[in-house]
Amino acid sequence: MIGRKKSRKRHTAEWISIVALALLAAPAQGGRVVTDQTGRRVMVPEHPSRLVSLAPSITETLFLLGAGDQVVGNTDYCEYPPEAQSKPHVGSILSPSLEKIVALRPDLVLGSPEANRRETADRLEQLGIPLYGVTARSVDEMLASIADLGRLLRREAEAKRLVSELKQRIDAVSRRVAHRPPPRVLFVVWYRPLTTAGARTFVSDVIRRAGGKSISEGLEGEWPKLGLEEALRLDPDVILFPRSESFAPGLEEFRSLPGWRNLRAVKARRMFVISDAIIRSSPRLVDALEEVARILHPESAR
Amino acid sequence: MRLPTTRRNALILTGALAVGLLVVSLCALALGSVPLSLGDVWEGLRGSAKGTDQAVIVREIRLPRILLAILVGAALATSGTALQALLRNPLAEPYVLGISSGAALGAIVALWIGGRIAPASPLAAFLGALATTTWVYFLGRRGGRLASYTLVLAGVVTASFLSAAILFVLTMLSTRDVRGMAFWLMGDLSVVTEAQLRMLFPLVVLGFAALYAFSKDLNVLLLGEEEAAHLGVNVTRVQTVVYLLASLLTGIAVALSGAIGYLGLLVPHLARMIVGSDHRMLLPTAALGGSIVLVLSDTVARTVVAPNELPVGAVTAVAGAPVFIYLLRRTAG
Q1: Mean pLDDT calculated for residue range A248-271
Q2: ipTM here
Q3: Is the CB of B34 less than 8 angstroms away from the CB of A102?
């Protein structure tokens, strides 16, 4: 349901559900029909007060907007900020428990097409629980998403403050890295098969803004695979790995892996494990931006 | 300890299994990541407490799932029983014959071409199952009759070819679609609409009734094709119709639930241990047994890592493989 393409039938079904919801909800507490970040029209409460977040990035944003108290449920993976861990969990991102969500009595569920399954969205719609889609594919879209959530939750002032603070930090980074030659970067989402970030992801955007150039920028798709031969041909200056529990080999082990050990960046030990904030489109993306900028341009940090 | 086949025993056993299914389903309605009492379940079912959380959980979330498990479990077990008798091969089951792989490929291709996972994919899955069934049927014919071993081999090879094709299409899909698909491929009962249930119910009942009408022919076929022909059974006709019916039953089940393995293989064997190989008793026992096993498996899938959920196919496979090995050792020794 969070999908971008919609058939006419879909639209009709949506409208029917909106009308039905309006009939049900309007006399009780009132609501408004808004367009969410994925282009769907959703009936949301005037002042959403019981929120369930289905993605860690959304949870982080809600807490930074000061709406942490209104979060009544989130996922097993919502670890940041630490207070989020003590909220009731509704399960994993891919298979949350619908009955747990129902039992938490949310007046609004927030999910993301990048994180959740379509089936989850479809089932929520069938149950008449409003779902607000949140999406961002670049740093600018992340900022726009915060402002949008501010309007949705009636927290415009907090959102404005947060966005302007983030913008200052982003601008500071661009000033520091301006006019410096961009190192060529390989971002490794997974090493076997070698999977990287495509052009239209916030990862590539962060690398660009941090004064680097992603070697996979020309690749189609969000998380394209890159042949090791191609990686050798492009021979990046720096290799970045997001921090992850399941990451199999340590950085040193790449020095003995055939193919990998022939990469210039591996020989020169220009490999870095960075915060996993870079693969979450939350405000912490700016933390990742600053970290990548320090790695790519260490001389500018001083 | 096999029960002798009498009308009375058949009725008693069927009745007992039906009561068993009812009890298991009621318990399944009470179990889940949100604990409910049997009283809550009763009120939810009666609709006396409409709109409460308990009622929504019972009626909108757990009930459709359990009904789907009952129908799919019965369809897969019935289909497996009929195919094992038809091909006189204890390994025959809908999945070995490639039917589920065909359904999966159909659904995946529909997704690849640009459809959404629901509601277009049940139709695409069904068409995939139908195409595979027809293809394997023609490959498995020798001199106008279905040749058991040829058919099984044709099914196995077709299944592995289709699996390769599935992997190919999966690499072409976007990450988001792959995640949904991976769940579906492992069997997922969590998404079903009332309209789909209403369509599935008569199809499963009709499919079962049609296969049941062939019970005596299946009994005779167990003696061998020549013998059956001497006893006046039109072997070619029985083979064709039973094979198509069993495949269709599997096709519609897979279309709505994804690939749930081991059920169609194991439940018939378990049922045969209890009632022997008279299909007049075996088919109803297997059907009800299949429902019970799948409702139990899905309840485990919903509760064992709650509030997370496992794909139900993972549960049936993890439980099914050891049981199958146990049966194998028992009958071999």
Answers
A1: 83
A2: 0.71
A3: yes
